[in-house]
Amino acid sequence: MSIEEQIRVVQDLVNELGEDSVYDTKNPRLYKAFATVKREKLRDAVKYLKESHDFVHIVTITGVDMKDRYELVYHLRSEGFNMNLKVPVPKDDPKVPSIMDILNGAVLYEREVNDLLGVFPEGHPDPKRLILAYDWPEGVYPLRKEWDIQTLREKVDGKKWGKDQLHSSRLTSFSRRSDHPVSGFERMTKWRLETRSSSRRDRTSRISSRPYRLG
User: Is 98:109 a contact under the CB 8 Å cutoff?
Assistant: First the structure.
């Protein structure tokens, strides 16, 4: 598919839904396009692209806190052509219509965005937690800019987490008895520390196994 044909695909979407609903379109290079779509027209846009241009695969859904709004990006693909639909979401009404019945692959991505950014997929049959622990506090969404690592720690565990506290508690926090309840925040942190430690051991092992050569 040529760049001209891909530009026509984007223009077809604009013609189908109207310039008020699809705007700020871009084709920066071959096989990549962007368009901003009104929240109310998201399902219509996805359905049209699927039925008319064979966009049957959703790569992922990403989201970002833009301070004045949230913005979700639906990454669709058709034979190597990546169409990225940006959907602005107002902060006072953080929800979007689910597209899971149109593209089944969105089932986990919608749950992830709801879990981490707090944008609820209306119509999703099972929008339960996906990444955060079930004891994670309601209303605390770690990808929102109102939170940083210190305020998250204090909110979730009731403790401050400065640099000194982190280094002094790495061993004591994770050497509890197995029957002692561990918070979701600690489980996430433990996994990161263990992954980092395992990576270091692997690198050390590879270096030490190299033959020593003189000269």
Answer: no
DSSP 8-state assignment for residue 39: G
pLDDT at 160: 62
User: In the chain, which residues have pLDDT < 50?
Assistant: 168-180, 215
pTM here is 0.75
Q: Which H helix or E strand runs over 204?
A: helix 184-208
* pLDDT the model gives residue 109: 97
Residue 148: how many other CB atoms lie within 10 Å: 10
pLDDT value of position 1: 81
Distance CA 57, CA 97 (A): 18
Radius of gyration of the chain (CA): 23
1-127: CATH architecture: 2-Layer Sandwich (3.30)
Give the residue extent of every domain in the chain. Answer: 1-127, 148-215
Q: Taking Cα atoms as reference points, which of 95, 87, 44 lies closest to residue 62?
A: 87
CA-wise closest residue to 110 among 99, 178, 102: 99
Reading the block at residue 111, the tokens are 């749950």
